[in-house]
Design a protein that fits this description.
InterPro entries: DctQ (IPR055348), TRAP_DctQ (IPR007387). Part of the tripartite ATP-independent periplasmic (TRAP) transport system. Pfam families: DctQ (PF04290). By secondary structure, the protein is mainly α. It is built from seven helices and no strands. The protein has one domain. The N and C termini lie far apart (about 65 Å).
């Protein structure tokens, strides 16, 4: 079990590094998008290559951060029933979910997307739009992204089983940091309080 937990830590470290690096692609996508819009409005000039670059960046963020999102327990959950069960039962549900739903789906997509990428790579597939980009880098993101998600699934499976055996902490409690939504709500509340205090001072 110790070897498996060590493997889990390595997988988590990889997904953590990839996830943090990918966040910079969001900034790049915003810059590319705003520059495209500005140039189009001011100079009436547009480029399919730059428009497609926006799509590539969005795809990269969505696919490459999927494993990091699972690591941080930020995937959408519908726990209407599971929330009523004990944590041990929930862990068993997660083990079954990873083994019989997450892993088969991800492996199938990886298997089907690899020939899809190879065909584009071998044939130097180009965008059908005038001046567009080559297609294989975007298609390569699919197997890579799902490989990272498979890795995150394996890591989560190891930690869930380890928790059931009493060999490691609950994987959900490891990432007890507040979610993005909770942080945003706190920021909004704090700003509202500051405005209210400033209003009282003026009066």
């Amino acid at each position: 079990m110790n070897a498996l937990l060590a493997l889990s830590r390595v997988i988590d470290a990889v997904n953590r590094r990839v996830g943090r690096a990918v966040t910079w692609l969001i900034l790049l996508a915003v810059l590319v998008s705003s520059t495209n819009a500005t140039v189009r409005k001011l100079f009436n000039v547009s480029s399919n290559a730059w428009l497609e670059l926006q799509w590539y960046l969005f795809g990269a963020v969505f696919l490459l951060a999927s494993g990091y999102t699972l690591l941080k327990n930020e995937h959408v959950r519908v726990d209407v029933l599971a929330s009523r069960f004990s944590r041990r039962t929930q862990l068993w549900i997660e083990v079954i979910g990873v083994l019989f739903f997450l892993m088969p789906a991800c492996v199938l997509i990886m298997w089907l997307s690899w020939p899809f990428f190879m065909d584009a790579f071998v044939n130097h597939e180009q965008s059908s739009n005038a001046g567009g980009l080559i297609r294989w880098p975007a298609k390569l993101l699919i197997p890579i992204g799902f490989a990272l998600l498979v890795g995150a699934g394996v890591s989560h499976l190891i930690k869930s089983i380890g928790c059931l055996l009493g060999r490691c902490p609950d994987p959900r409690e490891v990432h007890t940091g507040k979610s993005a939504e909770e942080l945003l709500a706190e920021e909004i509340a704090r700003e509202a309080q500051e405005r209210e205090a400033a209003s009282h001072e003026r009066h």
